[in-house]
Amino acid sequence: MLLALVGVLLVLAGFVFALQGMGIVGPDSSFMFNNPTWIYQGVAVMAVGLLALGGGLYLSRKQRAAKT
Questions:
Q1: Global pTM?
Q2: Contacts 24+ apart (CB under 8 A), 16-19
Q3: Which domain holds residue 44?
Q4: Is 42 within 8 Å of 14 (Cβ atoms)?
Q5: How far apart (Å, rounded) are the C-alpha atoms in residues 5 and 58?
Q6: Measured on CA atoms in the order 3, 4, 5, 7, is the torsion positive or negative?
Q7: What is the pLDDT of residue 22?
Q8: What average pLDDT does this structure show over 14-31?
Q9: Cα atoms in the Cβ-side hemisphere of radius 13 Å centred on 33
Q10: 11: left (phi over 0), alpha (psi -120 to 50) or beta
Q11: CA of residue 4 relative to chain centroid, distance
Q12: Mean pLDDT score, 17-39
């Protein structure tokens, strides 16, 4: 479940990065604000987070199945 939690946090962080890159969230003085590079990096972080989330859920389900 720890891997799934890390995955959720990565997805949320990537989403915020992407929004900052689009200029939707964050202070205007941030180096990430309205910077298209952070849109792509945010999407990449979200993808890694989704992989971690999926892997954590898979391993958790597999571990529960082995106990029964």
A1: 0.88
A2: 16/42, 17/41, 17/42, 17/45, 18/42, 18/43, 18/46
A3: 2-67
A4: yes
A5: 13
A6: positive
A7: 96
A8: 94
A9: 7
A10: alpha
A11: 11
A12: 94
The total number of structural domains in the chain stands at 1
Helix, strand, coil percent content, the chain, rounded in steps of 5: 80, 0, 20
CA dist., res. 24 & res. 38, Å (int): 12
Cα distance between residue 43 and residue 19, in whole Å: 10
Give me 30's structure tokens.
């941030």
Tell me: the pLDDT tens digits for 31-65?
999 999 999 999 999 999 999 999 999 999 998 88
Residue at 42: amino acid letter: G
Number of Cβ within a 10 Å radius of residue 32 = 20
